[in-house]
Amino acid sequence: MTVDVGMKKCIMVVLAVCMTVGTVFGSGQQSGGSSAAVSQLPRNETLYLNGIQWSAPVSSNPYHGNRNYGFVDVQRQVIFETLFLYNPLDAKLYPQIGDSYSWNGTTLTIILNRNVKFSDGTPLTAADVVNSYQLAKDYAVSYSSFWTYISSVTARDDYTVIIQGNPATFNPKRIEQSLHELYITSKKYWDSKKPEIGTRPTALLEFTGWDCVGTGPYKPMIQDETKVVVERVDSYWGQHPSRWGKLPAPKYLAMNIYKDNASGDAAFAAGQVDVSQQFISQVWRMWERGLPIETYIPQAPYYLPGVIPSIVFNTTKPGLSDPIVRRAIAMSLDYNTIGQNAMSGYTTAYVPSLMLPTPPEQALIDAAALRPYQWSSNVATAVAEANRLLDQAGWVRGADGIRAKGGVKLSFRAECPAGWTDWNASLEVVAQAGRQIGMDISTYFPDAPVWQADKDNTTFDIIMDSPGGANIASPWTRAYFLGSENLSAPGTPNNIHNWGRWQHARANEIIQALITETNQERLRALWTELNIIYLQEMPMAGLMYRPSLFHTVYTGVWTGFPKQNDGSNIPPLICLDGYGIAALYKISVK
Fold first, then answer.
1. Given pLDDT bands bounded at 50, 70 and 90, which one contains residue 283?
2. Does residue 542 contact residue 308 with C-beta atoms inside 8 Å?
3. Are 82 and 263 in contact (CB under 8 A)?
4. With contact defined as beta carbons under 8 Å apart, do 17 and 62 qualify?
5. Cβ-based burial of 520 (10 A; exposed 0-12, middle 13-18, buried ≥19)
6. Given this model, what pLDDT does residue 131 score?
């Protein structure tokens, strides 16, 4: 089947780990407290979504990498909540469970909202927050990495949490990232379950936790092979004036399950889905047909850029160890073809750098200072320059047209998972570019687990991925994934960052300096210098800009979805992710 790349990629990498809440039950059943069967949901009270769930959940434990083990995406702030909410529009954190936070040296103090309650009515205290962090320390889960930078998490009183940074690895960006990624759950619940769970590091991953409670405005209601439904908690604490001041508009959120993009698109066009998180080819064709369908941006690129899908070079590979070879590949790429064909035009023209074309990230660099290191947007001109550089570096074309030097032939394999159609098409452009500069670049599309293992073990030549997602630590996380020298030993998995094992002393110094630098002028100078090094060395090459989530809406039932320049400052995050949940309080029945 053809499935959106972003969805498939999330299957392999858990970007946020949370714990489920409410009373959930076996497939095809409904909770005893619910009166509406799935086929009887009132249309004017139900917000339908697709592109999130792709088969019936078999567990509520979101620690599994496969989203279909539980309500992983459904949980985005609506079943569980985090301390704060990240907004990519302005790169700021907004209050949720937490009211405020402040730094004093390496100590972070968090003040909690005193009105927060779990869905069972019990109040949340600092002990629940401390325990949520402690779970990530006691068990091997994706949140565990935050403890690399944290020495302790303690409660000063019932509504004050103190996070002490680790002086040896202090990284305020990573610690702040935990504030909007770690979901807060009940200490009382987990204390009662620990005898059942045990102490093995992976035991929490194996625990289903169907009955866990959270603080969000919704709780699980129905799950079967066609949809997952969550029901509003009408006693939700967030209707207090200190937070939202009211309940979210939809009484039900229903995540439809479709076999492929085509069936999901048909249901969306028919008005059976209100918010689509699917890759829709040529989305503008829908409103040209007169359908009440909109994107966040009314014209190209239609979606808000959130990640930079890139090709990562194995810098330990002969040939690819030469920055001239890596740079020549990047220079010869037809970015317009990638953007128009692979991405249906859902990207602005790619400008070579580490930065997204968003105001917060562009403010961090001196764009004029980068231009001498960037190449022409005219493909023919850039290819000619790439060939000139390779000639000067001594890479000579053989009788077969493939360049070689010192017994090393420029023959490589570029890979990404089979079925990730937009990525597959992008790598075909990479292969074509190789032929224009005397390189043999073949494409390789294995199953996703093989791709993941090749990436972790650096057993690839060229591999495609999207390093460093959108979060409060961006774009630092992108730089960290690019080139931190804190590598695992050769021959051992390197599955956290720097898959290409690129090493550059000055780049590493800058990446470390960016962690604690607060002076805006100095930050701009450091980011500009790092981007210049990147453009000279090209340890990876961006191919396009891609949205974190495809936010496309049907306005025939619900209206008031966020739009660019509407003054709301609500990001297009399918009403479920980070500060995007603010849309649930803005929309209304048409």
1. very high
2. yes
3. no
4. yes
5. exposed
6. 96
Structure confidence at residue 208 (pLDDT)? 76
Show the DSSP H helices in 253-410 as ranges: 261-269, 284-288, 323-331, 335-337, 359-362, 367-370, 379-392
Q: Tell me, which fold does domain 305-547 have in CATH?
A: Dipeptide-binding Protein; domain 3 (3.10.105)
The answer to whether the beta carbons of residues 263 and 2 sit under 8 Å apart is no
Q: Which residues pair with 256 in a beta bridge?
A: 227
The DSSP output letter for 149 is S
CA–CA dist 277, 256 (Å, integer): 11
- The pLDDT of residue 59: 62
Instruction: Give the pair of three-digit tokens for residue 338.
Output: 């990638």
* Domain(s) of CATH 3.10.105.10: residues in the chain: 305-547
Give me 406's structure tokens. 């010192």
Q: CA-to-CA distance for 4 and 548, rounded, in angstroms?
A: 12
CATH 3.90.76.10 range(s) for the chain read 84-186
Find the length of the chain: 590
Pure H helices in 13-90: none
Q: Where are the beta strands (DSSP E) in 280-429?
A: 293-295, 305-307, 310-313, 396-397, 403-405, 408-409, 411-415
Query: What is the DSSP-derived secondary structure letter of residue 339?
Result: I
DSSP code, position 488 = P
- 3 state SS of 413: strand
Structure confidence at residue 552 (pLDDT): 97
Predicted pLDDT at 10: 38
Residues facing residue 154 across a β-bridge: 162
84-186, CATH topology level: Dipeptide-binding Protein; domain 1 (3.90.76)
H helix or E strand, kind and range, residue 46 = strand 46-50
- The confidence score (pLDDT) of residue 17 equals 31
Q: Is the pLDDT of residue 322 over 90?
A: yes
Helix (H, G, I), strand (E, B) or coil at 19: coil
Encode pLDDT of 400-415 as tens digits: 999 999 999 999 999 9
Residue burial 418-441, b: 16+ Cβ < 10 Å; e: rest: bebbbbbebbbbbbebbebbbbbb
306 vs 549: CA distance, rounded Å: 8
Q: Name the percent of the chain in helix, strand, coil, to the closest 5.
A: 35, 20, 50
| Domain boundaries for CATH 3.40.190.10 within the chain | 5-79+190-302+549-589
Q: Say yes or no to pLDDT of 30 above 90.
A: no
For residue 62, which amino acid is it? P
Give the pTM: 0.85
HEC assignment per residue over 81-137: ECCEEEECCCCEEEECCEEEEEEECCEEEEEECCCCECCCCCECCHHHHHHHHHHHH
The pair of three-digit structure tokens given for residue 163, joined into one six-digit string:
């996070």
Q: Class assignment of domain 5-79+190-302+549-589?
A: alpha beta
CA angle 556, 558, 564 (to 5 degrees): 100
